[in-house]
Amino acid sequence: MSNRLEVRNVSKRFSRMSGVVERGAELMGLKAPNPVVRALDDVSLTVAEGEVVGIVGESGCGKSTLGRVVAGLLQASEGSVLFRGKQLDEMPGKSADEARLKVQMIFQDPSSSLNPRQRVREIIGAAPLHHGMTTARELDDYVSQQMQRSGLDPSMAGRFPHQFSGGQRQRIGIARALAVQPDMLICDESVAALDVSIQAQILNLFLDLREQLDLTYLFISHDLSVVEHISDRVMVMYLGRVVEEAAVGELFSHPNHPYTRALLQERPSLDPVQRRFSAIEGEIASPLSPPSGCHFHPRCPMAMERCRVERSELRLIGPGHKSACHLND
Amino acid sequence: MLEINGLKTEVVTEQGNVTLIDDINLNLAAGEVMGLVGESGSGKSVTGLSIMGLLDKPVQVTGGQILFKGRDLRKLSQKELRSIRGNRIAMIFQDPMSTLNPVLRIDTQMMEAVRTHESVSKQAAWERARDALGMVGIPSPEERLSAYPHQFSGGMRQRVAIAIALLMSPDLIIADEPTTALDVTIQAQILSIVQKLAREKGMALIWVTHDLSVVAGLAEKLSVMYAGRIVEQGSTADLLRRPLHPYTNGLIASLPAHNERGSRLKQISGTTPSVANMPKGCAFRPRCSSATEICFDPPALEAVEGRLLRCFHPVMEGAPS
Amino acid sequence: MQTVMNSTKFRAGLQFIRQFSRSPLAVLGLVLITLIVLMAVFAPYLSPQNPYDLMQLDIMDGRMAPGTGSSAGFTFLFGSDDQGRDMLSAILYGLRISLIVGLGSAALAFIIGTAFGLTAAYVGGRVENAMMRLVDLQLSFPTILAALLILALLGKSIGNVVFAIVLVEWATYARTARGAALTELRREYVEAARSLRLPHRNILFRQLLPNCLSPLVVLLTMQVARAITLEATLSFLGLGVPVTEPSLGLLISSGYEFMLSGTYWIALFPGIALLVTIFAINLVGDRLRQLLDPKAARR
């Protein structure tokens, strides 16, 4: 079985481009070069056909950057992205474009992900029309189909995004993505901005669509409960690196990495027992200057001298279970 | 400490009034923590702002009483209100920068806050500021006092905002989604600090949030709001174990943690109504599976099984685990 | 369905008009602009005389004070110039030239500058840097000096004046358009469009442009007033429109030499016309900025 998606040793660095004057100042040693953020640091990932892989982490962990690299919105600084075993940058331009079209993204903020000046008909219909998936004559029917499938009333195709509620707007975003007939969706915090009762509706829609259309998902979220519910496999990230990866049941019942354990422990739950919040110490370091060695060591209750100096590599600790912690040696 | 009866807040316009919240009743003793839970548009934030008297023009409190230590805040003059606000009642917002002035140093802001309400020496005010920062767990408070807000991370800024709220050791703190924008581990840190302080100092706390699970371990009492009204109110343990209102029940049942992994979630269908377009009778009726004819009349908030409930058809069985 | 849709758009329009008209000064400005434009359009019917037709001029009517009767039978409401030309007629015809130059050059500069700024923001990187340095260069050049140089090289004509003004004004639009586009580019709908592989043309003109329009429209109104002033200045300095098609600026210029000899009206009335026009446009522009520019404080 080939993998739907393979990400091989991808790194992504960001730095602000220096202007002419700045560059001169840097050359003369008057100014330090612009700082480099390592948003992704040697990240690998495989997603099988039809699988749902969840990516969890806090802000600055690189999960959104990873999603955008996979969606082709950002270029990886190093490493490669393969769709069905084929490297995209080695494909001829046209088929790379087609392959990219098969991967669509569902965004976090339903109000900023829809163009406020366009009617729903145009938001959903522009891309399939451009790519020849429908004709101008059949466009209205085509858009209606997409809207229906996402749980929207097709008679509202002539409205503007601001006339819809948050949940409906997210459905428009989903209909827009589905309109170009993708087989993989990248959901970047797609339910985070929604009310609790609406969250369940949208999650159910994702589940239904998976069944109807055999979709593969990369599901990015900071919310452990949501990821646990929808994913087959989960990857935990911290400051640009993968710290743990396992099948969902395994990860939630036998978390290995201290960071994963901390996350699970801090997860808010509905347990009404007055509990003591035993907070994990310290702050998430800035991705501009991540700690040496294992990025998590300053906050880790079990940190040793080795964690300070030596990077912990991700390695297999059980069937399908990988973790990056020196304690496993 | 705080007793609110029949509070009503409306947008007052020439074309007529639009009700934002109505018939809000709350009771809070010293040292008690109450979670005020609702989705966007439920009126939970408006309730907090109404108590603080921080509403902006077309929005006004138009009915009810807000008794704080026996005095009705609505009857006080602007001057008396100002001396209570920030002094005896403090507020923490979702965005700490709405409390902090970006161009002033933390010590300037905190000392000013102390000296508006109390005539103390600069030295005493500075010491009070330092102690407050220490209380919220900011390391080396002496040095951090001379920093500017932008030099703090999001979580630290929220701690500073909490420290400012704590400066005058208020009797009541109203916190409006203060951890929503923060990461899970940082949220846990803030919750732990607030929980500790409320216990130690005997402060009453109203924690406004959309997330039941945040207040589940924090608050003793819960008020669930829907469409501008309280629909269910009682002890946290009772409410979460056996929600009686179909809305509370639906909310809890829809959480992924209460559903089998990978299965369809039990969802509440439909969307929250907008204030301009309220359904007749019970506002939850169009989304409720047990609604009947009688629900076209507005239900009243009544005592049922040791709690307050606004429903004709309480959920009797099948409560989530 | 269609009617429901139209009605919401209609209502939004109504709402905007209501907000706009909350400022009586802005309404005054709008009324004045309408009157001025109408007067310019219907100048041939309103003016007692065709000021360009030398056959209708009588040198004996030269430098008549306001209110005096002409030999042709009508009254010189605003007086006459040294050629015996009725000032009212000259102003109405001059207004036409001024408005054509002002609107034409502002519109052209708007189109060129906006396309330039949007493209720069969208392309990004070194190309954007180079494009924006060009804009900086343009903006750092003294406007009038640049325009004077261009006209000195090309010679006088309405077309050349428009060209000169466009050349010195496009950069302002480019900078505003780039700024607005940079904000919009960060919004997720642009990422969505990219991920849907929509063509660049679509992203630039269907996604970005409509969302960047508000600050540009405000700038456009302000720049119309600026272009009219610039044209008047150039004409006053003798490098603007040719004498055969006098604009308001040229009228003021030709009246200037008689100013001290007591024949004040030749310069004064065109001056007032220019002032009122600029003032009215600025009133409307200010109000538009209040309503459309998110950075301006909301009342």
From TrEMBL, chain A:
Keyword Transport: yes
GO cellular component annotations of the record: plasma membrane
Keywords: ATP-binding, Nucleotide-binding, Transport
A GO biological-process term: peptide transport
SUPFAM superfamilies linked to this entry: P-loop containing nucleoside triphosphate hydrolases
Residues covered by the ABC transporter domain: 5-264
PANTHER family for this protein: D,D-DIPEPTIDE TRANSPORT ATP-BINDING PROTEIN DDPF-RELATED, TRANSPORT ATP-BINDING PROTEIN
Family classification: Belongs to the ABC transporter superfamily.
Official protein name in the record: Peptide ABC transporter ATP-binding protein
Organism per entry: Phyllobacterium phragmitis
UniProt lineage: Bacteria, Pseudomonadati, Pseudomonadota, Alphaproteobacteria, Hyphomicrobiales
